[in-house]
């Protein structure tokens, strides 16, 4: 995959983060990022010699590091806060830019400076969740959703977002023209090729990956994910907090990017997404992970993506049934509806803890149960 020049810096930074994790061999890591081993060793050596600027192309002048806010700018921020004691980071950033101050950092950086200076107190218990749940390691669970579409000059954009539950790492952020199955599948393949396969993906009940009707919840897209060895789980209907981390991600994306930008073309949106995502993954501290950055907690999956769907054999204690063209199977004289996407597929039926119940599986995925 040929990387464009403006993507190369973030690719190098991300590669170094993954190399330091030692999750896979160096050769395998270089192959995953589609670079030669010689190139990978060169990036590692340059980063070790000069962590701040070693990865930058030569002889290009290094850009300003977002975290290294100049002292003069910090003084302007503190002075503005003293003048406007109720203003937060976004308001102060807009004010300082209007005043012609150079090198004004992002709103989140300004808020961090104010917190360290004692001008912003920690959130009260009333506004903070009493507990957080996260999976113990990266790639155990990804959350996926479409952020609500928004208008640009030539149409509407449908942002497809995927984050890792453990690290909050933004796996994928793409500006899509629609929310169709083929569009999502194409974007998922890009994510799988770069980061590997997760154990499970959680989604809501809307198209193209789900339905609000529990009896036929699975779709062609969820079927495709299952066939690639990925478990699919669904949020409770009308309970967006089940996918709370990605909902919070959407709010941050809106606050930090979408509300302050005007876009003409979809390509312009994607370029802005790429730049913002790099900052989110590599630079921006995340309070949910003790102010670390997501890339420090994330490593790519050892499970590689293969375009061909692998075969699957049910264990001996399964009763195997083929789903009819109408999405049904016959079980003990009853017609059980499985779902149209499973037409022509083989499902496995197995006794569960109760002798009066049967669990129905497609490959590793438990589809549901039926009382006999």
Secondary structure: helix percent: 25-40%
Task: State the end-to-end CA separation.
Answer: 53 Å
How much beta, percentage-wise? 15-25%
What is the typical, i.e. mean, pLDDT? Answer: 85
Which regions are unreliable across 5 or more consecutive residues at pLDDT < 50? 123-131
The secondary-structure class comes to alpha+beta
* Principal-axis shape: elongated
Radius of gyration: 24 Å
Count of strand segments: 12
Count of separate DSSP helical elements: 11
Largest sheet: 6 strands, mixed
Series of H and E elements: HHHHHHEEEEHEHEHHHEEEEEE
Question: Mind explaining what this structure looks like?
Answer:
The protein has about 375 residues and is of the alpha+beta class. The chain is about 35% helix and about 15% strand. It has eleven helices and twelve strands. The chain has helices at about 5-20, 25-30, 35-50, 70-85, 90-100, 105-115, 180-195, 220-225, 245-255, 265-280, 295, and strands at about 140-145, 150, 155-165, 170-175, 200-205, 230-235, 320, 330, 335, 345-350, 355-360, 365-370. The strands form three sheets. Strands 1, 2, 3, 4, 5 and 6 form a six-stranded mixed beta sheet that branches. The chain has a four-stranded antiparallel beta sheet with strand order 7-10-11-12, with no helix packed on it. The chain has a two-stranded antiparallel sheet with strand order 8-9. A hairpin with a 2-residue loop joins strand 8 and strand 9. The chain is elongated and about 80 Å long. Mean pLDDT is about 85; it is low at about 125-130.
């Amino acid at each position: 995959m040929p990387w464009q020049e403006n993507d190369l810096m973030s690719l190098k930074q991300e590669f170094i983060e993954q190399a330091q994790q030692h999750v896979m061999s160096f050769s395998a890591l270089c192959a995953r990022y589609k670079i030669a081993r010689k190139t990978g060793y060169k990036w590692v050596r340059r980063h070790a010699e000069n962590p701040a600027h070693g990865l930058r192309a030569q002889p290009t002048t290094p850009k300003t590091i977002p975290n290294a806010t100049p002292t003069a700018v910090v003084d302007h921020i503190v002075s503005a806060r003293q003048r406007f004691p109720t203003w937060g980071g976004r308001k102060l950033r807009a004010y300082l830019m209007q005043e012609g101050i150079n090198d004004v950092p992002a709103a989140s950086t300004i808020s961090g400076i104010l917190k360290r200076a004692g001008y912003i107190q920690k959130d009260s218990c009333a506004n903070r969740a009493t507990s957080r749940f996260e999976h113990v390691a990266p790639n155990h669970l990804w959350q996926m959703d479409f952020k609500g579409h928004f208008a640009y000059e030539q149409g509407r954009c449908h942002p497809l977002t995927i984050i890792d539950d453990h690290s909050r790492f933004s796996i994928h952020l793409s500006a899509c023209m629609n929310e169709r199955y083929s569009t999502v599948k194409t974007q998922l393949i890009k994510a799988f090729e770069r980061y590997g396969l997760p154990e499970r993906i959680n989604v809501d009940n809307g198209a193209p990956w789900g339905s609000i009707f529990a009896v036929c919840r699975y779709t062609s897209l969820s079927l495709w994910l299952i066939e690639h060895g990925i478990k699919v789980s669904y949020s409770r209907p009308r309970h967006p907090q089940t996918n709370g981390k990605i909902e919070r991600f959407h709010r941050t994306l809106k606050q930090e990017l979408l509300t302050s930008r005007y876009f003409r073309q979809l390509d312009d949106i994607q370029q802005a997404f790429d730049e913002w995502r790099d900052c989110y993954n590599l630079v921006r501290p995340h309070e949910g992970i003790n102010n670390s950055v997501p890339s420090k907690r994330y490593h790519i999956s050892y499970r590689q993506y293969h375009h061909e769907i692998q075969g699957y054999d049910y264990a001996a204690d399964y009763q195997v049934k083929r789903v009819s063209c109408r999405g049904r199977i016959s079980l003990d004289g009853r017609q059980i509806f499985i779902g149209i996407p499973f037409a022509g597929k083989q499902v496995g039926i197995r006794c569960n803890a109760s002798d009066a119940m049967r669990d129905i599986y497609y490959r590793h995925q438990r589809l549901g149960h039926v009382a006999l």
